[in-house]
Amino acid sequence: MHFSIPETESRSGDSGGSNYVLRKEYGANVLPAFPPKKLFTLTPAEVEQRREQLEKYMQAVRQDPLLGGSETFNSFLRRAQQETQQVPTEEVSLEVLLSNGQKVLVTILTSDQTEDVLEAVAAKLDLPDDLIGYFSLFLVREQEDGAFSFVRKLQEFELPYVSVTSLRSQEYKIVLRKSYWDSAYDDDVMENRVGLNLLYAQTVSDIEHGWILVTKEQHRQLKSLQEKVSKKEFLRLAQTLRHYGYLRFEPCVADFPEKGCPVVVSAGNSELSLQLRLPGQQLREGSFRVTRMRCWRVTSSVPLPSGSTSSPGRGRGEVRLELAFEYLMSKDRLQWVTITSPQAIMMSICLQSMVDELMVKKSGGSIRKMLRRRAGGTLRRSDSQQAVKSPPLLDSPDATRESMVKLSSKLSAVSLRGISSPSPDTSTSDVHGNYAFEGIGDEDL
């Protein structure tokens, strides 16, 4: 991306110094445009506007590994978050949820970044240091049925306490969930009692909410293993089920296989899955492998003009986000597919993390790692540790859930509508190239 930080930001002492250092280190054309700061006290409406701008800025930066890994840049963002919300550095209690709804209360500083909070949660649960990197914290919105709608993965430079409290709504929570996609890494986690319990609780929750697709017979087998408290065997069976370990997004719209088609998108196992129903047809599924995506981009439309209908509770029109990816339909045919969703950025981040994981595996590396602790940082071990509670037995399978069939044995046989060519003002640097893209033959489709 080719943007620059406005000079208005350099008017305020420390931020101005950081701005100068960042410009010197990366160049003015590398940094995304930073939300400008005003000299005077902000009104509540201006604070909320700046919070939204800062949130979008952080999500954009997340997709640039060079900036995301810079401690200078991360420090700059940490200060910006505190300054925007006018939050002093002090000790507070923060509630983090597990996938089964269990609450874990940790004592942190308001200035603690994501890794600090993740370490505190791990210490509270007695999760070993070498397994912390297998888990992440996510900002979610709790729905009426208890399921979580994922807003975003909390970034390394983010301040979780500030992020969740600035939203000023009880429906927003922070949740601990595994952060990898390849179920082969489950073996590392299941070696440890706490890791096993976390995976087990997450899997039971995903089945209960319909994220993992289960037949009646599979459901019976899973419940039998639960009754025997055979957690590892339960997970082994769950690993064979469709959509195990996937993240599921809220219903949205795609141009696959026709324009304006309502879909439910799930991400996992190196693919995006689209569940859909065409008029008069059975529930179907189409899968897009990440290794066949040449590139992708996230774009936003112009906000609705004044006087137009907007979402309830909002005083201005919503920005419409779209994720578009160029997909290899057959050996010599690439086609654009687009998904319109408020969670488009989160989908893009999922794609990038799947590609990163594939490249690590291809190079023979491992995702097992110790967290990088900041200079002078200390891990505050909890005085009292907390066990992961075992979830209740699975409920009876939902009789209203339909079986699903593949949309097509070959995506090349499906007619998809492409999106329009990029507009002249769309920079090619907004497109994320895919290092895991592979050329394939028709026989592989």
TrEMBL record:
UniProt xrefs under CDD domains: FERM-like_C_SNX17, FERM_F1_SNX17
Every PX domain range: 1-84
Lipid bilayer topology: Peripheral membrane protein
Keyword Transport: yes
Keyword terms: Cytoplasm, Cytoplasmic vesicle, Endosome, Lipid-binding, Membrane, Protein transport, Transport
Ranges of biased composition (kind: Low complexity): 416-430
Any one GO cellular component localisation term in the record: cytoplasmic vesicle membrane
Compartments reported by the entry: Cytoplasmic vesicle membrane; Early endosome
Gene Ontology terms: biological process: endocytic recycling; intracellular protein transport; signal transduction
Region (Disordered) location: 373-402, 416-445
Domain Ras-associating: 90-181
GO terms assigned for molecular function: phosphatidylinositol binding
Job description of the protein: Critical regulator of endosomal recycling of numerous surface proteins, including integrins, signaling receptor and channels. Binds to NPxY sequences in the cytoplasmic tails of target cargos. Associates with retriever and CCC complexes to prevent lysosomal degradation and promote cell surface recycling of numerous cargos such as integrins ITGB1, ITGB5 and their associated alpha subunits. Also required for maintenance of normal cell surface levels of APP and LRP1. Interacts with membranes containing phosphatidylinositol 3-phosphate (PtdIns(3P)).
Family, similarity comment: Belongs to the sorting nexin family.
Record note on quaternary structure: Monomer. Interacts with APP (via cytoplasmic YXNPXY motif). Interacts with KIF1B. Interacts with the C-termini of P-selectin, PTC, LDLR, VLDLR, LRP1 and LRP8. Interacts with KRIT1 (via N-terminus). Interacts with HRAS. Interacts with ITGB1 and ITGB5 (via NPxY motif). Interacts with CCDC22 and CCDC93; the interaction associates SNX17 with the CCC complex. Interacts (via C-terminus) with VPS26C and VPS35L; the interactions are direct and associate SNX17 with the retriever complex.
Protein name per UniProt: Sorting nexin-17
Lineage: Eukaryota, Metazoa, Chordata, Craniata, Vertebrata
